[in-house]
Amino acid sequence: IDGAVVTPIRGNLEIAGWALARSGIRSIDISIDGERLKTASAGIRRIDVQRAFPVWEGALTAGFSARFPHGSVPRGAHTVSGAIHAQGGNPAKLVFAASTSTNVVVN
Q1: β-bridge partners, 83
Q2: pLDDT at position 1, please?
Q3: pTM (two decimals)
Q4: Exposed / middle / buried, residue 86 (Cβ in 10 Å: 0-12, 13-18, 19+)
Q5: 30 with 80: CB under 8 angstroms?
Q6: Which residues of the chain have pLDDT under 70?
Q7: CA–CA distance from 43 to each of 38, 61, 95 (Å)?
């Protein structure tokens, strides 16, 4: 809600979505508390994005995902952000808050 995860994350943390740029997407970096930890896997099929943006090259494979295994993010409140790097220009940044708990493992 308003950029924050309301329920603590009790298992794996997965950041997934889609991104488009007219010049193409070069990479999507995921950071936790300001530290870049992972480059998201890109090229995931997104038929819904292709339908919404039928004339955009790369719309069908605009999906991305980054997974952090249970326990790899310390317990407590964190700020998770993503930097979307287009082929040309400055990166766009997305930020939200998350809280992790070590009580339950969910895969």
Answers
A1: 29, 93
A2: 47
A3: 0.75
A4: middle
A5: yes
A6: 1-10, 94-107
A7: 16, 4, 22
Could you give the 3-state DSSP secondary structure of residue 58? coil
Tokens of 45: 């099929």
Q: How many CA atoms lie within 13 A of 96 on its CB side?
A: 13
Taking phi first (over 0 means left), then psi (-120 to 50 degrees means alpha), and beta for anything else, what does residue 96 get? beta
CB 46 within 8 A of CB 64: no
Phi, psi of 69, deg, nearest 5: -60, 155
Cα torsion 70, 73, 78, 81: sign: negative
DSSP H helical segments within the chain, as ranges?
47-52
Place of tokens 């292709």: 50
For 4-16, letters b (16+ CB in 10 Å) and e give ebeeebeeebebe
Identify whether the C-beta of residue 103 lies closer than 8 Å to the C-beta of residue 58. no
pLDDT, position 21: 86
Tokens found for residue 100: 């992790």
